[in-house]
Amino acid sequence: MPFGLFKSKDRLGIDIGTSAIKIVELKKESGRFILKNYGFFEFKSADNTPSLTESKQIKNILKLPDGEIIWGIKEVLKKAKIKSSDVVASIPSFSTFATVIEMPYISEQDLAKTLPFEARKYIPVPLDEVVLDWSIIDIPKNPVNTTKPTTVEVFLAAVPRDETMRYQRIMQGAGLNLRALELENSALTRALLGNDLSPIVIVNIGGRSTSIVIVNGGYERVSHNYEVGGFEITKSIARSLNVSLEKAEELKKKLGIKEIDENVINNSMKSLVDMMAFETRKTITSYEETKNQKISKVLLVGGLTNMPNFASYFQQKLGREVYMGNALARVIYPQTLSPVIQEISSTFAVATGLAMREI
User: Fold this and answer.
1) SS3 label, residue 80
2) Could you give the C-alpha distances from 187 to 13, 65, 75, 351, in angstroms and in order?
3) How far apart are CA 55 and CA 37, in angstroms?
4) What are the φ and ψ backbone dihedral angles of 139, each rounded to 5 degrees?
5) Would you kindly state where each structural domain of the chain is located, as residue ranges?
6) Using an 8 Å Cβ cutoff, are 269 and 233 in contact?
7) Alpha helices (H) along the chain
C-alpha cells in the first residue's frame, strides 16, 4: 500500500521477521515517545501445530500461511493486553528494492512526473508489480541554475504489490488497521539515528540473516544481506555438541563468546561471527573507497548482539570501534525495565522505529 500515515497518539509497530513477531506500542505526549507495551512471539512446534512451549524446530514465519501469522499476532496482542489498533508494519529488506539516484531538478511536480520513467532503469521488475515511493534527500537552495542543470538525490523504494496486499490481509485478519508499510531499514534508521546525518553502518543480526546497512544523510545508501543469522549459529552449536536446538539456544544465551575454559561453544560460534565481521568490513571498505568518505560509527542491533562478549569480539574482528544501537534512547520507559532495557532495545529496534513513524 502507499506509505500512508496516521494521527492517533497510540501506535503499534509490528515487525514480522523470519523467526519471530515483535510488536511495540508507543504513546506520544508533549513531543516524547512513551513505551506502553511490547510483545514477542516465536512459532515453535513439535509437529505442525503452533505452540508456545513445545519446540523441535524454529519455523520461518514469512513462509507460514497467513492464518498462522494472524494467530501469532493475536496471541501477542492478547497476552500483552495491547489495545491499540493503528499499525505500521515493516517489509523485510530482502523483499524490497531501495536505492539513491541522481536526477535533474526543476520542481517537485516535474520530478514526480518523470520519476516513474527513470525508475524503470533501476527496478528489476515491471513497475505495475510494485508500489513505488520516493523522497528528495536534499532540496537545492537555488533550484534553478541558468549555467548548469541542478541535480538532486532521490531515495527510491519499491515494494512488491502482492506483498503489500498480503500484509493488508494479515492485519485485517488480526483486527488491526494497517496505516503504513515501511522498509525495515528505514524503521531502523529512525529508531537508532534520530537526527544524526553522518555516515553510519547498522549491522542488524536477525534470526536467519544479517543486514549490513550504510546510512548517510538519514537515508539508506547501501544494503547488503548476508545469509547467516542467530539460528545458523544455534544449529552449528547443536551439531558440534550433538545437543538439541533448545539446549544449543540456551548455551548460546548463557555463554556467548566468553573467553573462559568451560565455554564449550566458542569454536562452533566464532567462525560464523568471523564471517559476519568480514562481510561488514568488506561492505564498509567498498563504500569508503567508492565515495571517498569515512564511516563515523558502527552500530549493532538484533537479539544475537545481547550474547555475552559478542560486541567486544565483533569489534576485535572488525578492526574498528562498534557500539550497541539503542532504539529506546528517545523513549520514556518504566524504570523497572532498566535491567533488561538493552536487550529489549536490540530485539525490538525495528518495531520501535515503526511505532515512531509520524507526519
Assistant:
1) coil
2) 9, 25, 24, 8
3) 26
4) -75, 130
5) 97-158, 195-325
6) yes
7) 66-79, 108-119, 161-173, 184-193, 230-241, 245-255, 266-291, 310-318, 341-347, 349-355
Phi, psi of 69 (to 5 degrees): -65, -40
Query: What is the phi/psi pair of residue 282, to 5°?
Result: -65, -40
Residue whose C-alpha is closest to residue 204's, from 97, 347, 317: 347
In sequence order, the 6+-apart residues with CB closer than 8 A to the CB of 335 are: none
Query: CA-to-CA distance for 181 and 190, rounded, in angstroms?
Result: 14
DSSP letter for each residue of 161-180: HHHHHHHHHHHHHTT-EEEE
Architecture per CATH, 195-325: 2-Layer Sandwich (3.30)
Written as tens digits, the pLDDT of the chain (359 aa) is 444 444 446 889 999 987 889 999 999 888 899 999 999 988 764 433 333 333 344 557 778 889 999 999 999 999 999 989 999 999 887 778 888 888 887 788 888 888 888 888 888 888 889 988 888 887 655 555 555 558 888 999 998 999 999 999 999 999 999 999 999 999 999 999 988 889 999 999 888 788 999 999 889 999 888 888 888 888 888 888 888 888 888 888 888 888 776 667 777 788 889 999 999 999 999 999 999 999 989 999 988 888 888 899 999 999 999 999 999 999 999 999 999 999 899 999 999 999 999 74
Distance CA 355, CA 205 (A): 20
Is 146 in contact with 54 (CB distance < 8 Å)?
A: no
The CATH number corresponding to 97-158 among 1.10.490, 2.60.40, 3.30.70, 3.30.1490 equals: 3.30.1490
- Buried residues in 43-63 as b, exposed as e (16+ CB within 10 A): bbeeeeebeeeebeebbebbe
Place of cell 536534499: 138
Read off the C-alpha cell for 226: 548476508
Q: With the CA atoms of 276, 280, 281 and 283 taken in that order, what torsion angle do they form, in degrees rounded to the nearest 10?
A: 140
